[in-house]
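User: I'm preparing a small set of examples for a lab meeting where we compare how different chains pack in three dimensions. I only have the primary sequence for this one, and I'd like the structure in token form so I can line it up with the others. Please keep the answer compact; I'll paste it straight into my notes.
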Amino acid sequence: MVRYETGVDPYLYVITAQTTVLFDQETLATLQIGQMVAAVSLIEALGGGWDRSQLPSASQISKKPSAGDYKLQH
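Assistant: Understood. Below is the structure token output for the 74-residue chain.
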């Protein structure tokens, strides 16, 4: 937006960047859902389970991931 507001880039670049961010956020959400479903399937396949007290709270689920959550792990 700063580059657009200073006249360096056209607004089309802003829209393209916003679209890319939105697509990437949607992809992240889809991957996280897949990861959760796979984890539940694995636990069920191994004969395990949990009780309701072990599930994350609504505030934990809606918490924005920290920058460390995006780092690659070796």
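A couple of notes for your slides: The radius of gyration is 19 Å. Residues 4 and 10 are 6 Å apart (CA to CA).

User: Perfect, thanks.
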